[in-house]
Amino acid sequence: MKSMRDVRPVQMTLNSRFKFKCYPGISCFTACCQKIDIALTPYDILRIKKRLGITSGEFLHRYVRQEIDEKSGLPLAIIQMDPDRDYVCPFVTPEGCTIYSDRPAACRYYPIGQGTMQTEEGVDEFYFLIKEPFCKGLEEKKEWTIADWRVDQEPDLYDDMNREWKAMMLRRDADAMKAIDEKKQKMFFLASYDLDTFRRFVLESRFLELFEVEPETVATIKTDDVALMHFAFRYLKYLLLIKEDLKAKEGVAPEPAPAPQA
Fold first, then answer.
1. Does residue 178 sit in helix, strand or coil?
2. What angle do CA 189, 194, 198 make, to 5 degrees?
3. Three-state SS at 256
4. DSSP letter string over 97-145?
5. pLDDT digits (tens, 9 = 90+) for 16-59
6. In 3D, which of 241, 245, 252, 191 has the Cα closest to residue 214?
7. Would the N or C end of the chain have less CB density within 10 A of its end CB?
8. Is 122 helix (H, G, I), strand (E, B) or coil?
9. Residue 66 to residue 218: CA distance in whole angstroms
10. Plot region of 147 (φ>0 → left; ψ -120 to 50 → alpha; else → beta)
């Protein structure tokens, strides 16, 4: 969660302790959901668009703006704050979050921030306390460890779903950056965030004529969004020259035609 406000992160471990409690009636209730950049992961969008009963394309059109991450060169999906309500999250009312059980991972962790870094073994995750001056919840007596907070806020499934995608975002080598042109940025945005259009791309374009895809995978991704998301990660690794888990058929062009319009 990247804030427009002054945030002072302090790195923590799973055993680190902090005090926090948020509830309706506290003077700063929902203030943390205002004037802030919340970057969404593919699984965040999958959960929210299902909750709203709309397609991923409709969700992106209504609620998201795109930015290019300076470090990776890859596009990010950022929640578009409501300018008519002093830049508050569009899913937040004075009574609280209207999508609370499907809220993004960054919101689940708050006031804890989760960071990731690439290591030789894979992705290493760490935590830090976000200390914002307006937050009265940090003055409450309720004490947690980071481990306790993770159990209470249930981000584990989100972390599992997001880990593979985050690893792609952490690529920093020069060759990787050089390989990312505008076309690949567009395809990365599509496959990461617009699953419904990506499904049409796979099933209705020449994609299956160009790539070797297991019949059982084709059958599953027709209806299973989570399976489709993981298949999209396979495609993105191929696109970004990370791993040839997805192979082009012999004698055909390695990259498929542009995706259909949402």
1. helix
2. 95
3. coil
4. ETTGGG--HHHHHTTEEEEEEEETTEEEEEEEEEE-TT-SGGGSS-EEE
5. 999 999 999 999 999 999 999 999 999 999 999 999 999 999 99
6. 245
7. C
8. strand
9. 29
10. alpha
